[in-house]
From TrEMBL:
<feature type="domain" description="CusB-like beta-barrel">
    <location>
        <begin position="193"/>
        <end position="269"/>
    </location>
</feature>
<dbReference type="GO" id="GO:0022857">
    <property type="term" value="F:transmembrane transporter activity"/>
</dbReference>
<dbReference type="InterPro" id="IPR051909">
    <property type="entry name" value="MFP_Cation_Efflux"/>
</dbReference>
<dbReference type="GO" id="GO:0016020">
    <property type="term" value="C:membrane"/>
</dbReference>
<dbReference type="GO" id="GO:0030288">
    <property type="term" value="C:outer membrane-bounded periplasmic space"/>
</dbReference>
<dbReference type="InterPro" id="IPR032693">
    <property type="entry name" value="YtkA-like_dom"/>
</dbReference>
<keyword id="KW-0813">Transport</keyword>
<feature type="domain" description="CusB-like three alpha-helical bundle">
    <location>
        <begin position="94"/>
        <end position="154"/>
    </location>
</feature>
<dbReference type="InterPro" id="IPR058791">
    <property type="entry name" value="3HB_CusB"/>
</dbReference>
<dbReference type="Pfam" id="PF25954">
    <property type="entry name" value="Beta-barrel_RND_2"/>
</dbReference>
<dbReference type="GO" id="GO:0060003">
    <property type="term" value="P:copper ion export"/>
</dbReference>
<dbReference type="InterPro" id="IPR058790">
    <property type="entry name" value="BSH_CusB"/>
</dbReference>
<dbReference type="InterPro" id="IPR058792">
    <property type="entry name" value="Beta-barrel_RND_2"/>
</dbReference>
<keyword id="KW-0614">Plasmid</keyword>
<dbReference type="Pfam" id="PF25919">
    <property type="entry name" value="BSH_CusB"/>
</dbReference>
<dbReference type="Pfam" id="PF13115">
    <property type="entry name" value="YtkA"/>
</dbReference>
<feature type="domain" description="CusB-like barrel-sandwich hybrid">
    <location>
        <begin position="59"/>
        <end position="188"/>
    </location>
</feature>
Length: 474
């Protein structure tokens, strides 16, 4: 068979038909049922993140004139200052000169306001206004200008106060330092509200939107939960971690959360009322998703479904089922095999009279019945690597070649021993006509439930279940 033909055959899946089981069969394979139902869902995404400063609550301190810093009051990084607290004093020759110009202009305005010469009084008033505007452009507080008017004396050392409340993140101001308008002397930040930057995997980002709620926990405060909301999903993916930064806004009045803290984040996105089934009810074949509907009295029908997102232990159903239908929630792997076997049996056409005189080619068509012999090497199997052997014999006694053989080992969970369920599948390779070998690893000793599935030309032609006791301990 050519490579293209092999690929095309691999994409063709065997048909599924309704299955009719007896009570004994249903009990032996452990069928359990559930109900298709509507639920109010809230999608939860877990992530980690870090606390950061809310950049909108940052402010910087600069002066709009050059000068020399004399005294520094706020002299430590992370010192807390309130709005209006003194930060430092500054002596500026330019500021002193401008104050003197302003005082002189005011005196001239007073002297010349009664002048009979056209334009003299107006000109004096304009000079006063211009000098005052220059002081205001330098951000001199109105209180200082009023004081200047009242005292008539220029201030040689101007006190610069904090423009906002917050912690000092950066401090450049030092005594006797010469500064210019471009010099950033302090950076302040208010921590009463902070950002949490959560690292969310790119596959989950599409389920988030602005305003979604979040719960934040920190190892430093066991038992405490902080509430936040999604403010922005940033438009860039980290190429190393394949995560996207999601910015959360969190109220932090007591400054409990400190910038740089590592946090755990649970993001919640409301999905509304959705039709769902348990995840255990969905059998995924690779090309399609199937749910088995229980019609009662052992009648079970496979239904193709279209799935939405997985939310917790449920899948959202977009198409294929309706509310209140009874569905199978366990043993779906075995039901799939049984359905394919019954499909193969129902499509079998008896040979025409006389056709049996010719010897059939066992690999020319799917076999309706096949005997499966399964062994392990070593025998008994043990914990670790093992070789599995399967021999296939058709109803005519000839070996069956060209089949696909999968061997699945399953061990149920043992909570008392702290062990979860274990499941491993090995696909065997034909080594000679009718003989198939493969190597697999058993993670534990003990009793394993083994299922051998044999397919040929996309159809299941045989299954076998048995138990294997592996040596080697848990």
């Amino acid at each position: 068979m050519s490579k293209d033909a092999s690929m095309s055959a691999a994409k063709i899946e065997a048909p599924l038909v309704p299955v009719q089981l007896t009570n004994e069969q249903m009990n032996s394979i452990g069928i359990k049922t559930g109900t298709v139902e509507y639920k109010l869902l809230s999608d939860e995404i877990r992530a980690t993140g870090t606390v950061d400063v809310d950049e909108r609550l940052q402010s910087s301190v600069q002066v709009r004139f050059s000068g020399y810093i004399r005294k520094v009051f706020a002299n430590a990084t992370y010192q807390y200052v309130r709005k209006g607290d003194p930060l430092f004093t500054i002596y500026s020759p330019d500021l002193v000169a401008t104050q003197e110009e302003y005082l002189l202009a005011r005196r001239n305005q007073t002297v010349l306001k009664g002048s009979s010469i056209d334009g003299v009084a107006t000109g004096a008033s304009s000079l006063t206004t211009a000098a005052e505007q220059r002081l205001r452009q330098w951000d001199i507080p109105n209180s200082e200008i009023v004081k200047l008017q009242e005292t008539g004396k220029a201030v040689t050392e101007l006190t610069i106060n904090s423009p906002a409340s917050g912690y000092i993140l950066e401090r450049v101001a030092l005594p006797n330092m010469y500064v210019e308008p471009a010099t950033k002397l302090y950076t302040l930040a208010d921590f009463s509200r902070v950002w949490v930057n959560a690292q969310v995997f790119q596959n989950d980002v599409g389920r988030l939107k602005r305003g979604d709620s979040s719960s934040i926990t920190v190892d430093a405060y066991p038992g405490r939960t902080f509430q936040g909301r999604v403010e922005e999903v940033l438009p860039q993916v980290d190429m190393t971690t394949r995560t996207v930064k999601v910015r959360l806004s969190v109220n932090n009045p007591a400054v409990t959360l400190k910038p740089g803290m590592f946090v755990n984040v649970d993001l919640k996105s409301a999905l509304g009322r959705q039709l769902v089934v348990p995840t255990s009810a969905v059998f995924q074949t690779g090309l399609r998703q199937v749910v088995f509907v229980d019609h009662g009295s052992g009648s079970i029908e496979p239904k193709d479904v279209s799935l939405g997102a997985r939310v917790g232990d449920d899948f959202i159903i977009l198409k294929g089922l309706s509310a209140h239908q009874q569905i199978v929630t366990s043993a779906n792997f075995l039901l799939d095999s049984e359905s394919q076997l019954q499909a193969a049996a129902s499509s079998y056409t008896p040979p025409a009279p006389g056709a049996g005189q010719q010897t059939p080619n066992p690999s020319a068509a799917p076999q309706a019945v096949v005997a499966i012999d399964f062994t392990t090497d070593p025998n008994p199997a043990h914990k670790g690597s093992n070789v599995f052997h399967v021999k296939l014999t058709g109803a005519n006694g000839q070996r069956v070649a060209g089949a696909q053989v999968a061997v699945t080992f399953f061990m149920a969970a043992m909570p008392a021993m702290g062990m979860g369920a274990m499941n491993t599948t090995t696909h065997l390779i034909q080594t000679s006509p009718g003989l198939y070998d493969g190597t697999g690893v058993l993670e534990s000793g003990g009793t394993w439930q083994v299922t051998v599935i044999v397919k040929q030309n996309g159809q299941t032609i045989g299954t076998k279940q048995l138990r294997v006791n592996a040596e080697g301990g848990m």
